[in-house]
Design a protein that fits this description.
The chain has 429 residues and is an alpha/beta fold. The protein has two domains: 19-181, Leucine Dehydrogenase, chain A, domain 1 (Rossmann fold, 3-Layer(aba) Sandwich), CATH 3.40.50; 201-354, 3-Layer(aba) Sandwich (Rossmann fold). Helix content is 44%, strand content 16%. The chain contains 14 helices and twelve strands. Bound molecules: 1,4-dihydronicotinamide adenine dinucleotide and 2-oxoglutaric acid. 2-oxoglutaric acid binds at residues 82-84, 103, 106, 156, 158, 186-187, 330, 355, 358-359, 362. It comes from Anabaena azotica FACHB-119.
Length: 429
Amino acid sequence: MVSMPTLPLVGATPGHICPFDQACSYLEAAAKELSLDQGILEILSHPRRVVTVSIPVKLDNGDIRVLAGHRVQHSDILGPYKGGTRYHPAVTVNEVSALAMLMTWKCALLGIPYGGAKGGIAIDPQNYSVSELERITRRYTSELIKDIGPALDIPAPDVGTSAREMAWMMDTYSMNVGHAVPGVVTGKPLSVGGSRGREMATGRGVMIIVREALADLGKSLDGVRVVIQGFGNVGGAAAELLYQAGAKIIAVSTAEGGIFANDGLDIPALKAYAAENHKSIVGFPQSEPIKNAELLTLSCDVLIPAALENQITEENVDQIQAQIVAEAANGPVTLEANRVLEARGVTVLPDILANAGGVVVSYLEWVQGLSYLFWDEERVNREMEHLMVQAYRQVMQQSKMRQVPLRLAAYTLGVGRVAQALSDRGLYP
Ligand SMILES: NC(=O)C1=CN([C@@H]2O[C@H](COP(=O)(O)OP(=O)(O)OC[C@H]3O[C@@H](n4cnc5c(N)ncnc54)[C@H](O)[C@@H]3O)[C@@H](O)[C@H]2O)C=CC1
Ligand SMILES: O=C(O)CCC(=O)C(=O)O
C-alpha cells in the first residue's frame, strides 16, 4: 500500500466513491502485476503539481463571483502534460487528480510523447451567458499562464468545453506572451490551427475499438445493438459513426433523460433534432422516453457510457446485460462493478484505450501545428486508426500473455512504459 498524497486532494466526500482512490487502486494492481519497485510506485501515485486558482468574474448583472479553477499535472516523464478542461458542477481537485493520472497512462499506452494532466472549474456552463463563459475562460487561462504552454502543458476540451473555449484559451495565452501560440491548446477551431477530424476523434476511436473487439468475437458492427449514455462530443460522435457502420443505436441519453427505439434510432435525424432544441433529445419522434437508470440496464450487445464517472456501480452492475462495455467516458465503471463484470466474462474496454482517439488526434493537431503543415481529414483519421488498432492489439496480446483482464493489461502497458522512462531518466532518487 502506498502512502496517500499529501497534496490537498479536497472534495472526496466520506461514503462516496473517491475517484483518486480508485485511480490509485488500478495503479497499485498494475504495479503488483509488474513487480514494480515500491519507490517508483510511490512517485507515480502522487500528482507532480496541483494548481488551484481563484477566478473573479463580473457577471452580466454586475455582481462579482469568485470561482475556483484547478489544473492537476500528474506526470511529465514522457513529455509535456496533456489533458482536457472540464466545466461541470461536480469538479473537485480529487476528481481532476484522478483524471490527470488516467491521462498519463492513456498517452503512454497509445505511444504518444505526453504526460498527463486535467483541469476544471466547478460550474454548470448552462447557468452562464456566452460572454460570462468567455470572461471565466480568459481569467482561468491568465491565472495559469506560467503553468501551461506548448512544451509544458497543453489543455484540450472535456465535459462542458469545446473548440470555442480552446480558441479563447489560445487567444488569451497568445496575448500574454505577445505572439500567436496555437500549440498551447488542442481541439481548437480549424481557423486558428485546429486539426481536421478532432471533433469526431474520440467517438471515432470508440467506434474503432468496439469494431475490433466485435471482430475478435467473430462479429461485425452491422446490426449490433448499441446503447449510449451521453450525447455530447463523445457520445454523439460515437453514435453517428456506429450508425454509419450499420449498428442499431437503440437508446441514447443526456443529463435530461433518455430515449429508446427498439428498431434503432435515426441518428442523423436525432442530431438535427438536438441541434434545433438546444442539445435536448427529449421528445424525439419515433422514440419513447426512458429513465437514465433504466437505459444502462437495457438488453444490448454493446453498452457505451459516454457521460461521467461512476455510472455502473455495485448498485446496478448485476442488471447490466451488455456483452461489451466500452468506456467512452473516463471512469464510468467503479472498481467494484468492474470486478463483477470481469468475473461474469463481460468484455470491458477500458477508458484509457477506448476513449484515446481524442488525445491521439490532439497529438496529431499539435504535430501539424509545430510543423506548420496541415493534413486532410483522411490522413488524420488514418494515422489515428493506426495508433488505436496498434494499442488495441498490444492490450489483447498483453491480456493473453499475462492472463489478466483488458483493463489490467492496458494499465500494465501504460504504467510499465512510464516506470521504465522514469527509471531511465534517473528521476528516481
Ligand atoms: N471531449 C473529448 O475529446 C474527450 C472526452 N472524454 C470523456 O468523455 C466523457 C464525455 O465527454 P464529452 O462528450 O466531451 O462531454 P460533453 O459535455 O460534450 O457531453 C456530455 C454528455 O453527457 C450527458 N450527461 C451528463 N450527465 C448524464 C447522466 N447522468 N446521464 C446521461 N447523460 C448525462 C450530457 O447531457 C451530455 O450529453 C467524459 O468522461 C470525458 O472525460 C474522454 C476523452 C476525450
Ligand atoms: O485531447 C486531449 O488532449 C485530452 C482529452 C482528454 O481529456 C481525455 O482523453 O480524457
